[in-house]
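As practice, study what follows.
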Amino acid sequence: MSVSNTHVSARTIETFRRFNRLYTRLLGLFNRKLLDGPLSLAEARALYEIVAAPGVSAADLSHVLGMDRGQLSRLLNRLIKDGLIERHGEPGGRKVLPLHPTAEGRALLAELEAAADKHAATLFGPMGARENERLRVTLQQLETMLAGAGPQSAARDQGSGVTIRESRPGDLGWIITRHAEYYHREHGFDAEFEKYVLLSLAEYVKKDPAGSRVWIAEHDGAPAGSVGIVQLEGNRAQMRWLLVEGHARGLGVGRLLVEQALTFCRERGYDRVLLWTLEMLHPARALYASFGFTIAETGECLMGGQEMVEECWTLDLRPEGDQPSENNDALVFLTGRGHGHID
């Protein structure tokens, strides 16, 4: 067997393909319907992306899924016919029509997620706690190693139009506006949330710029996302204001922003990074976990006029030999309850 890339061994390819055969069998991907539900794998994945990024366009969804536009159009029409998603606006013309999940679509996805969790628990149940942890770490490493191999990564490397820059005058106002609009539209937050974001940014501008920073992601020259780092006491930093616009979902914008923020923290020599987020923000939580953040504290809070469960996630940046002893209080670094310190 010959391979065009001399650094890729035949054994690596053979092992990878063998793993794929095992993976597809274990997950039942050859079955017509996923997990004995009403949707195919492609339909379930499209519904997942629409629920995760309400307002996404068919063009952006095609890019995220790596699916032919014609095939995706037929798939979306089936989901619309079944009452799982809806397209806002009338077809025709050149206007981009956003896709949104219906209540039925959200409920069905929740059922599929629960079934997938149960299926995974059944697969991994025979393993002990140590083997489960080894599996988790291995899968995380595999995800990181393969993240640069797919078509989305190639697009980022070869002209996707995504750039990360430091904030300029006017950007803080954009962050306030987009946070307020997005969380009001998608989660029903009231005006108190806009006030909260405004006040948090007002505190940021008082910080030493050497230790605190805000970045803006741009896609084809337009703002597509934001993130910030705020210096805290005790050689710690807080990551805040992570947001990705719907039209930029699937381009890796969130990952690029978090990478930029953590690179800044490492260059400044911070020992630890923390962030506050909400239990309901599943895509953001998955992103944080992929970077090694773990939950250190949870509690109830009032956010945007609603009762929520907030979480503090932390990441230790110290060299391995500099890690604290197990006798140290794991939460000694916290500044107290978050009271709505959303990311």
Notes: The two ends are 49 Å apart (CA to CA). The domain at 160-322 is CATH 3.40.630.30 (Aminopeptidase). The longest strand covers residues 222-232. The beta strands are 85-87, 99-101, 162-166, 213-219, 222-232, 236-244, 272-278, 294-303, 306-316.
